[in-house]
Fold:
Amino acid sequence: MHCKTCTDCGKDSYSAAVNSKWICPYCNIDLTNEPAKPATAKDEVHNEIQKHLVHMKSSNTLALGQQIGPNRKGV
Ligand SMILES: [Zn+2]
Structure:
């Protein structure tokens, strides 16, 4: 897990893939060329990551639910 601090809004974002495209989740600017720092050691960082993961999971669940609804009607 790696962390980058946004140059625009100053907030930290996290990603497991440091070499892939990196967009700030807060203001959507491209942080791909910013230096990443390891974000595995600190518990408070881990808690932040958990919050992000929970948020992502709930978003995915909502999206899936919307897709499953119409399909089930047809089957
Ligand atoms: Zn930002």
